[in-house]
Amino acid sequence: MIIVDGNTRNEGIGTFANLEEVLNHIMQDESMENRIVTDVLVNNEIFSEIYPHQAEDITVEGISSVEVRSVPVSEMAVNMAGEMGKVARMMAHGARHVARLFRAAEDTEALELLQDLLDVTRDFMGMVSELRNNFTGGGLTDFMEKSEKFSDLLSEMADVLENEDWILLADLLQYEFLDQCEAWQAVSEQLHRQVVEHLAQ
User: Fold this and answer.
1) What distance in Å separates the CA atoms of residue 65 and residue 101, rounded to the nearest whole number?
2) What dihedral do alpha carbons 143, 180, 128, 158 form, nearest 10°?
3) Is 5 left (phi over 0), alpha (psi -120 to 50) or beta?
4) What is the pTM of this model?
5) How many angstroms separate the CA atoms of 22 and 12, rounded?
6) What does the alpha-carbon distance between residue 51 and residue 53 come to, in Å, rounded to a whole number?
7) CA–CA distance from 194 to each of 81, 95, 98 (Å)?
8) What confidence tier does 141 reach under pLDDT thresholds 50, 70, 90?
9) Pick from 148, 139, 135: which is nearest to 183 by CA?
10) Which residues pair with 4 in a beta bridge?
């Protein structure tokens, strides 16, 4: 049985060789145009790949049902834009914590958490840029200026990290990175409003 967004399909699972073929077939349907898959359930259990193309290694013999749940791209964009402010607050909280650890000479833990913080920051900037470019009609007029400022700070932090100057790194996190996070919270709120307005047009 194949179910897509609550609707049972006529095709049987047995006509496919593996799970990847089933999922590819579903995604090629025109009903999936401009939709984002949020969940895949195999035999009523959430499935997510542990390694690339794992679905290709799962034969259909042990599968009785595949269910795909999706939402419109526009709905996902609104939801994600609404979450960006929370991510900026989380980044600020992480920066405070990492700065405290560096000042307490807990360098190993601080460095591990700093890497996580930098990964989140990169993802955050990428997502804000994507949402702005695709769902605001090019809004957020001072976006490029703020992005460059944040990018310059991250480059400076990378240089300080290479020099292993943990106290200066703590200062940059506490006095500059935090300010940037607060600025990006405001940008995120503006972004959310503009995405909603743009999609309502």
Assistant:
1) 49
2) 110
3) left
4) 0.70
5) 10
6) 6
7) 9, 28, 33
8) low
9) 148
10) 7, 68
What is the spatial distance between Cα 131 and Cα 73, in angstroms, rounded to a whole number? 11
Q: Which residues pair with 68 in a beta bridge?
A: 4, 40
Instruction: Give me 5's structure tokens.
Output: 């967004």
Residue 98 has a CB neighbour count (10 Å cut-off) of: 26
Query: Shortest CA distance to 199 belongs to which of 79, 112, 60, 50?
Result: 79
Question: Nearest Cα to 5, choosing from 92, 96, 71, 56?
Answer: 71
pLDDT digits over 21-30, tens only?
Answer: 999 999 998 8
**Cα separation of 102 and 164, whole Å?**
11
Residue corresponding to tokens 């034969």 = 59
Question: Distance of alpha carbon 38 from its chain centroid, rounded?
Answer: 13
Question: Mean pLDDT, the chain, as a whole number?
Answer: 89
Tracing tokens 């969940």 back to the chain, one arrives at 39
The percent of residues in the chain predicted with pLDDT above 90, rounded, is 51
Tokens at 8, concatenated: 């049972």
Q: What's the pLDDT at 140?
A: 64
Nearest CA among 102, 107, 105 for reference residue 174: 102
How many CB atoms are closer than 10 A to CB 102? 23
> What is the per-residue burial (b if ≥16 Cβ within 10 Å, else e) of 33-48?
eebeeeebebeeeebe
